[in-house]
Design brief:
The structure is a homotrimer of 265-residue chains. Chain A has 265 residues and is of the alpha/beta class. Chain A has eleven helices and nine strands.
């Protein structure tokens, strides 16, 4: 039997305050399209991003950073080698790391790379519904980088994938689901306008990497990052005229919501 | 004798509605500087961007995507090999593809690469006036990535290039000219503030790739993408205080103008 | 004895007017994260950015451009080879160039690359306090790409580094210090919100490269670029609700402040 639970505002504020206090250093090995928004999302919330991508130094930096994000969006063979080395160090040093298997499915080489990276036991696997269903072995992927499934269609796949791998699995969509295979947290809300801004999903992966440095409860820390995104999307859409202003206001909202208890003090 | 014609708002709305309906998957192999704005422009208008750049998978993805954009802005030898493979597949599978010969002229290696890519018969060649004049064989290029010629100076070169290659040739500038060598469509308007925001030209190439998937009238589909940009620039400049806010409002305008007939329904 | 001096608004306006008039072409070899903001900062102020990164053409373009920026943020071995070739040409042709030694300290390979690049005599070395202290030989670097020192702690290191290398050394932080080892210009003001937007430091390096093409007084030209940033940060924070809107308004402010005397004419 699966347990479902939701996420409280108090818990979100607690995680946000911890993040600002600790300022975790997040080693981001991500795709070329979302580098800027990924860094800006982390900075808005009080984390410290650093993109180190060469095979000459990715392993060394992985041992220094507090967490690692691997996002295979614009994978190349050079980046893949560097990612593997960083993952190996993260695994050995027991640093938390997040895998985002972007566009898994239709492309053979990418699929093989992702399967290899999975061997280093990611702490969290996050993706859209089509990606999670495909990675769990029951689908052939999405439409390029977009999902062709609703997030609720991926709940069983996510729970199975979590049970098999030991990772927390997070699915984003109309509702987000975060699961360890036994307990599943649902985060409702957000707004579809976020899908019109590139990198909102990818940068969430980076924020998850930052949050899971905060305690050993990876499931709830991961859920907190998702909740912060959903709340910020709602704020943003209320103040935006389209995806351009949504992008700006969304970053403002991440900053304001994550710092709201700071300002009370 | 050359025919000139303009472009109607009704035709623009028809193309926009089709784009939203079909959501074409655009394979973008573009430069490092404009990855984010390129994706955001496509998303704002309802297309689906995907950046796949490795030689291990560019050909495979080219066969899946609906259209391909090749922009040589920050070309490297690795990207060039991957681009050639993608172009070959696009050519063989008769997928439409757009070539943006960024900064052709002063750099020898880049020129040779562009000439090689031309062999795969691009559906559309788009660039600024200096680039089009240079590619047509009568100029030595611009000032870095910027034009040193007015777009009207490039009309003859564009028409000649179109006749020789069979491609639609599009020149951007104070007025845009799109030609098949016989018929030339003029798109007036827009605003010079767009030249203060990086990637407005490059992302137009991606939008052209999306639009030319919609019917076999490549000339008019290409003109529709240009018209959507000009109209959005005019909207943006009326609501902007400089290039930073112009960028945001421009994306909002692309979204609003392309979806205006949707909202009427 | 060290001399300290401040910077006048009149001098800033003079440099800005020259920049708009001359439109220098800045060859940017910078990290993947900040490509867009770097180009947009240069465009906002009237300079012309071009990112040319392949070893096949970086040297050729370096001989064409008016100035070169080398920022080692997401260094790879391929980019390093291309950078060295560009630096060699810049040095030989006496083109001004700026070195930004991002994240120098904890990573061995990066440190060695930076030391090699230093041999081509950069005109300006700019960084945060921890980077400048480390490069001067008295510290082990920062927290990823962020400083762990106040900028005032780096004044002595900056002056020593300038004296030893012959470069102008610029430190950014709560106050900015620009020095030739003898005379040190202090630029006060700005706002800490700028540290929540990725690339504000990196893009300043590009603007410095543009400004030092304007006259042989590299120290004052460099200080002018820093002053323009500080003034724009102050303007931006007064009109922003967080780091997202700060980014937009900051670019607007760069445009408005750099063009204010143009508009008077």
């Amino acid at each position: 039997m699966q347990l479902y639970s939701s996420f409280t505002e108090d818990s979100l504020d607690k995680y946000c305050a911890q993040l600002i206090n600790r300022r975790p250093l997040v080693h981001c090995m991500t795709n070329d399209v979302v580098q800027e928004i990924t860094a800006n999302v982390l900075l808005a919330c009080g984390a410290s991003p650093a993109m180190v991508i060469a095979e000459e130094e990715s392993a060394q930096f992985s041992s220094i950073a507090d967490a690692l994000l691997i996002n295979v969006g614009t994978l190349t063979s050079e980046r893949y080698i560097a990612m593997k080395q960083a993952c190996e160090v993260a695994h050995t040093c027991q640093k938390p790391w997040v895998l985002d298997p972007v566009a898994i499915g239709p492309m053979t080489w990418r699929n093989n790379c992702i399967i290899e990276l999975m061997k280093y036991s990611p702490s969290v696997i996050r993706g859209n519904a089509s990606e999670i269903i495909c990675l769990a072995g029951s689908g052939s992927g999405g439409h390029g980088v977009d999902s062709i499934n609703g997030s609720d269609e991926a709940i069983n796949a996510a729970q199975m994938l979590a049970s098999h791998t030991g990772a927390i699995v997070a699915v984003t969509g109309e509702a987000d689901f975060i699961t360890d295979g036994h307990r599943t947290v649902t985060i409702n809300g957000g707004h579809i306008m976020a899908t019109r801004v590139v990198g909102t999903g990818c940068s969430l992966g980076a924020l998850v990497a930052a949050f899971i440095t905060l305690d050993n409860n990876t499931l709830d820390a991961c859920a907190a990052a998702h909740a912060l995104f959903k709340r910020s999307e709602e704020f943003a859409v209320a103040h935006a005229q389209g995806p351009g202003s949504f992008h700006s206001v969304f970053l403002d909202a991440l900053y304001q919501i994550s710092h709201r208890k700071q300002n009370d003090q």
